[in-house]
Amino acid sequence: MQQTYGLVLAGGGAKGAYQIGAWRALRELGIEFNAIAGTSIGAINGALMAQGSFETAMRFWSNAEVSNGINLPFELKSGDNLFSLSNMPQIFYEVLRNGGIDISPAKKIVEDNISEEAVRASNIPLAIVTFNLNNMKPVELFVSDMPEGTMIDYIMASARFPGLNKQGPDDSQYLDGGVYDNAPLGILRRHGYHRLIVIDISSRKGMAHKEDWSCANIVYIRPYVPEDLGAAFEFDKDMNERRMEMGYYDTKKAFGELFGKDYYFKKDEYQLLIGRYGYDTVDQFEDLARVLGVERVKLYEADEFVNVLKTAYDKYVEMLREQEQQAAAEDQGRLPQLAQKVLGKFKRKDKIPLLYPLALRILAPGSEAPQAEEPEDEEPEQDEENTEQT
Fold it and tell me: Would you put residue 242 in left (φ > 0), alpha (ψ -120 to 50) or beta?
């Protein structure tokens, strides 16, 4: 039986690549949309989805770079992240000189890849959200309610982040719709769509956003750690590929095709881990793997994951030993014996054995791992009200 949902696409700039990876997975799962609502980059992705242009969307994001979307008379100090701190003086100058960064190249890219005619002819209604600064009111509307020829202007108004030049269908000043509702469930709920998928790529939700809707079936697709998606204006090709992979895997996880808290496993491999080590230990495996920098965006087999994690931990232990030996060699002969003892007392201790004891029972069964710092004994606090005076 074919599954149909309303689709909500949050704003988030370059993190929008995640939504295209999610779309790839949704296509494989046979899930279709009966309506789409998007804010900012979600409005752009929503238009690509409404017109059914999956290959176009993949090319769009594979080639997305800061330099392709802006027109500046100077070279940015940080070419991959538009709003990085190193670019702030240049951006401030451009705001004063030109009212904001000229993004006419970005608008041309959108016009070349999105057809208003195709979106209007689609059987998937598309809604966007922006904010009118002139009257300080939100603008939430479907493409069918827009005057002919204005759809691209409304989409660009929805994505008009502060610092970018004026965008919109008229002389009003518009602002990125994320300031009002960055994940616009509301407009779909008000139009009778109660079975929804939300692809959420930003912790910024907007002043009118509401997640707790009654009488609704809502599936959220988002990364376990939102910071994994990087910065909103970090348009790096490798990072975009990584975001698309994350979107693909997280969508499969949201619909029960993949398992794991932070990492990704097929059902039988995850069950093998749980059956062999128990849920709490596997939970610590995943937390420790992130701490040790084990590659996250890939599909693991059970034995492979444990072996990779053990290798990473062994390298970590060896690194600590080398650091201790180097520090001891540097201190030897330079400090009086008493000073060495004081310094040793305040050296940073390895916290991993204390934080992940279940995991280390498997990874370091011989207890050869560096010992955790023992907590100091503390006097128990007395409840003055319940202490009898004698």
Answer: alpha
